[in-house]
Design goal:
alpha+beta; 18 helices; elongated
């Protein structure tokens, strides 16, 4: 009989004899998983998964949700790393059998970017359910994705040291819910891209609270179409701004309260080119800014002069707002503008909480799929943030995740159990509506 070579089952070592290939620790099943932070996220973001299931197949909804949870817990995560976090966390037990490797995610992201029917229906549902007060803002992301057509030198090129892409999002300032999301070319101005972003859904009668970067005559038309209204700061360059601040006598006054902070705000109202313009000055902040300038002047710091102080002082802590609203009092318009800062807090989550800095996706449609995943992770973040605020723990989101991370899951005598559960930690999870059972109840 002839000889046949079979599968190699080991090797002969002169010192140790026969050494089989099997028996490596890598061949053993995982019996310890990360648990606490994932359990909190899953227990408090069921609304996001339920909404996904309204518009996507059950399996696609779970995959999108799982990747979004990874982004929420771990921060901005590249496709190649998602599967590892899934396999080493309780996600693999709660949402079993998901294919989240690089190739599978590449196809999912591309499908989300190309087959956008469910994506747009999902976003339309978010818009239809929103409070009607919408902020739009952008986040600059470094971009090494030459194949997407998104990587361009933008205004942050000097700081980033690389080309950039722009993530533009619409956001409900009252509920903290993201509504629309899309990547745009790094060299394109936000005021140009906003028209495409808002075209992804039908917005009826919203009030847009946007920053001066979106100011243009065309956008003012957009912000007043279909029953829309707007509040927008005037850029400092155009003649409308110069006319508004030519006379800085501000006869009106009111007290603005935000949390525990109170400020005296001076204001005046006028018509500029037929539009309602209001000039506000936070008297408390203006006094602090003037004192700081004078301190630099006394020390002889470079750039501080008496002439400079005389020119700058009248415009310190001054906000010039243009609005299509006619019936609201000045203090109401000011309060609406201040609410827009909630969007800045939300984008700080992407910049610092998620550390979304460099886009490496090499396909345009995959990049748009990622933009949608980031929107969904924002929904997860919102739900968990609401639960954290209601818990009374008094923790920030990073503090909460760090504390939750101390609880692990381990397989003991054939059953999965939560480990490192001190008494105070059990109370912590109870306040966050998070059961410590590793496996979901049947």
């Amino acid at each position: 009989m002839g000889q046949q070579d079979g599968r190699c089952i080991g090797k002969i070592d002169p010192a140790r004899g026969f050494v089989p290939n099997s028996g490596s620790l890598r061949d053993e099943g995982v019996s310890a998983l990360d648990f606490g932070e994932w359990a909190v996220a899953l227990a408090n973001s069921g609304g996001t998964l339920a909404t996904l299931r309204e518009f996507f197949s059950a399996r696609d909804a779970e995959r999108i949700y799982a990747v979004a949870v990874v982004h929420f817990v771990q921060g901005f995560t590249y496709m190649r790393d998602v599967a590892s976090f899934y396999e080493m966390s309780v996600l693999q037990l709660r949402l079993p059998g998901l294919r989240l490797g690089y190739d599978a995610l590449s196809r999912l992201y591309e499908d989300l970017g190309r087959r956008q029917g469910p994506v747009l229906a999902f976003e339309q549902a978010l818009v239809d359910r929103c409070s009607g007060r919408v902020a739009v803002d952008g986040h600059v992301v470094g971009c090494r994705s030459e194949g997407t057509g998104l990587a361009e030198k933008g205004y942050r090129f000097g700081k980033l040291g690389e080309e950039q892409a722009n993530l533009l999002m619409a956001y409900d300032v009252n509920t903290g819910v993201p509504l629309l999301s899309r990547f745009y070319e790094g060299g394109a101005a936000d005021k140009v891209c906003v028209r495409d972003l808002l075209g992804q859904a039908e917005l009826k009668d919203p009030l847009f609270l946007v920053d001066r970067g979106f100011y243009s005559e065309e956008n003012l038309g957009l912000f007043t179409s279909n029953g829309c209204q707007y509040v927008i700061p005037l850029p400092k360059g155009p003649s409308a701004y110069k006319e508004a601040v030519a006379d800085m006598e501000l006869p009106g006054r009111f007290v603005y309260e935000r949390g525990r902070k109170s400020s005296v705000v001076e204001f005046k109202e006028q018509r500029v080119a037929g539009r309602r313009v209001l000039v506000f000055r936070d008297a408390n902040e203006a006094a602090a800014m003037q004192a700081n300038y004078l301190r630099h002047l006394r020390r002889g710091d470079r750039g501080s002069t008496r002439e400079g102080f005389g020119a700058a002082a009248p415009l310190m802590a001054v906000t010039v707002l243009q609005t299509s609203l006619e019936g609201e009092r000045a203090e109401e318009v000011y309060g609406l503008h201040e609410r827009r800062w909630a969007a800045e807090t939300y984008f700080d989550y992407f910049k610092n909480g998620q550390d979304a800095r460099t886009l490496c996706v090499q396909d345009y449609h995959q990049a748009q799929g990622l933009a949608f995943v980031l929107l969904v992770s924002g929904l997860v973040h919102r739900e968990v943030a609401d639960a954290l605020e209601a818990s009374g723990l008094g923790m920030s989101m990073p503090e909460m995740i760090l504390e939750a991370r101390k609880v692990k899951a381990a397989r003991r005598r054939g059953a999965w159990v939560a480990c490192n559960c001190k008494k105070k930690r059990i109370a912590f999870f109870e306040k966050l509506n998070t059961p410590l059972g590793v496996l979901p109840r049947p």
